[in-house]
Amino acid sequence: MIEALIGFAAIFGLALLRVPLAFSMGLVGLVGIGLTRGWLPALASTAQVVYETGFAYTLSVIPLFILMGNFVARAGLAHELFHAAYTFIGHRRGGLAHATIAACAGFGAICGSSIATAATMSKVAYPSMKKLGYSDALSTGVIAAGGTLGIMIPPSTIMVIYGIITETHIGKLFAAGVIPGVLTAILMMVAVVIMTSRDPEHAPAGEKFTWAQRWAALRGIWGVLLLVVIVLGGIYGGFFTATEGAGMGAMGAFLFALARRALNWKALFEVLVESARTTAMLFTLLIAATIFANFVNFTSMPMELKEWITHLGLSPIMIVAAMMLIYILLGTVMEELTMVLLTIPLFFPIVVQLGFDPVWFGVLIVMVIQIGLISPPVGMNLFVLNTLLPKVGLTTIFRGVWPLVLVLVITLGILLAFPSLSLWLPSMMD
Amino acid sequence: MILKKLLETACGLLAGLALFAIMVLTFLDVSGRKMLDHSIPGSLELTELLMVVVIFGALPLVSERGEHVVFDSIDAILPDALKKIQRALVHLLCASALLGLAWLMWQTGGDFVASGETTAQLKILKAPFIYGMGLLCGFTGVIHLSMMFQPLDHEDAEGGAL
Question: What number is the ipTM of this complex?
């Protein structure tokens, strides 16, 4: 137990000194195994982890979904999505904010990244809201929070990573995210209604469209629908594995970007290299986290933690709720991916032993990551918006986003209380 | 400056082309299998080899652009002089770790040469890829060494995985 605790402390110490987390985790894992098991086994197991993580066919699902998201972002499909949503709900009070959330949800169905969704939407939705006189706080808050739908609504990079490290079925995780994702979007819209009723002049209604115009706008999003049907329909229907679906999706998104003349050689090179870099960064973390998890699993910590928690006499659901509370608190100051990679080796075995479905826990993990991404002071989506819209200060974004953080926490509570919201769709896949 | 450009182009081409190849390969393999009842022989193991190229080919770029995930919470309170020392030490640590890993993978590559292990279907030797992992790790280590004394304003890290 004590060795593992020292290990965790060492990681945090190194990280605070600004050592990249992948290096902190990998080094601590290596030294930990070296000191407890001997240096030869430590080196051998490290080489094996690096080799096996590199040469893994199923892991190619990660770069392929990242690539698909980057092609989709480049293809400009977000414009049509936003326009279509706008023609339907733009004439209501706060209509542009509602349209932004709906477009984020739609974009989330072809892009597995929260940051890419928020970044893309900031270019599409923010100028329109600004023009109509929406307050900066409301517009950036909605874009930051809406962007997090990108990882709940499948495909989702983080679900893929969770599926890989816990050996959970990725297709089922994807299916499980659909209802929670839609529910989150609806609750966000309810929050927008409440927010705009208190401050109506900062969220004026837009123009009204005829039904003919609406149908025309809907026809504009056929590309998005086609990609969703092929990739998610294919995976859900058992026609593809997740890896195959990712490959088809990336190719489809590539062809779309090509057909829409959104790609020249330079842009293609940029998309490919950007995706490769994200992949390399993720795999460095993945390799390091595996080395560290191997060390933790050599120690008595997972066992003792399990025993300690069972002896607390809490009901199983209370234990999971306590984990979620820890995640929410950690998520305000920590990078969310690291938070999950560090804690999964400890929490996941407990959750499984308590008899909970790994798919359900996966959805909860995605939800706490969503919360972490937009909860001040450290939230990646907030920083991305701050970088892309430098005229809007971070404090303004904080002011706009906190009601939506609350919405996500409430949604987390609902998902915790009603597992069937997450598990009904995946149960149809058996 | 020219060196930097060369690095970005060479590693970018290597990793980017490998990624593009994985995409096309998966697409052709799946559509061939589902529609024409013909898969591409060895496509799985080709993907595995290409994955190694994507990951380790792009690794120097991640380091060079400072895109590894870091906590920078205490940056605001550190004086610049201290920051410079801290950055130099961190790069030195990263470089040592990567050079060590390079040595380890080079040794592993030697083992693969000795056993002559190949992929199952296409009988491609694995050893060159393991050596390649080692070389690119070492190269990334050298990049960290070269970054030890660069000015502070060079940093613009921003990961995009989530």
Answer: 0.93
